[in-house]
Design a protein that fits this description.
With 88 residues, the protein is mainly α. The chain has one domain (2-84). The protein has helices at residues 2-26, 30-55, 58-84.
């Protein structure tokens, strides 16, 4: 049963990742692209957590946390630059 849930979650996250890539390519507004890229990084972090849990290795979970933190800071910087044309 555990393997079925793992493969279903991995397949679902892969589909969401493909949809996110298409959204980044097709969205014409800058704000939409920032949002789509942030969503992509969160989906990648979820995949890393899922894989780390399957492998019983905490390094993947640590990498997912670092990726989520960097994505958060990058999204804040991009949104601020988009809104005010200055980062700091």
């Amino acid at each position: 049963m555990h393997e079925v849930v793992f493969y279903a979650a991995a397949a679902w996250l892969t589909v969401l990742l493909a949809i996110g890539v298409v959204a980044v390519i097709r969205v014409s507004s800058t704000a939409g692209r920032i949002l789509a890229l942030d969503t992509l990084t969160l989906i990648l972090a979820a995949l890393l957590v899922l894989y780390g849990n399957a492998q019983r290795n905490s390094y993947y979970i640590d990498a997912a946390l670092i990726l989520a933190l960097l994505a958060f800071v990058g999204t804040l910087a991009a949104a601020r630059y988009y809104g005010e044309r200055k980062i700091f």
